[in-house]
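S1.2 Input.
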Amino acid sequence: MILPIVAYGDPVLRKVAKDIGTDYPKLNELLENMWETMYNAHGVGLAAPQVGLPIRVFVIDTTPFSDDDDLTEAEQKALNGFKKVFINAKIEEESGKEWEFNEGCLSIPDIREDVKRKPEITISYVDEHFKPHKETYDGLLARVIQHEYDHIEGVLFTDKLSSLKKRLLKSRLEKISKGKIDVDYRMRFPNVKKGR
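S1.3 Output.
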């Protein structure tokens, strides 16, 4: 089932999400719905807070990025078919010299900005079978994971922009929160009265 994606301004996007246990109700159904919602919106990642749930769950499929001709063959290969569920994730370490890359977010449609992030991360998490993993990623894979990880920490990519950029985007962000934007996927806007 395609779920509505929560728009900028909703308090759930600002909560530090909680870990879940093996007894979390209907987890498989939630994951299926998150995949379907993400693909419907042409995203490469989706975190549970973006569908209104303050839990530490996100899904990633970077395959669409693997077609980018600006990437090396090794980068394309790493991105192609990378599809994972991250539950109760914790970034253990971020390292390297920060680099800029243009990011967008399904909860903040029609806004894209260059964001600085460290190029390498080590992350521990459990998968959908609650099997533990500790892995190191770099480049675009690390960046997509960092972006989704931020969501479960209550952080948005716009938080990482300069104060000048934030001021310039303020009215556009307010319009998004009020639903004054055209999107081709289902969204839930925090500042729109029901029945409108």
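S1.4 Remarks. The chain has one domain: 5-181.
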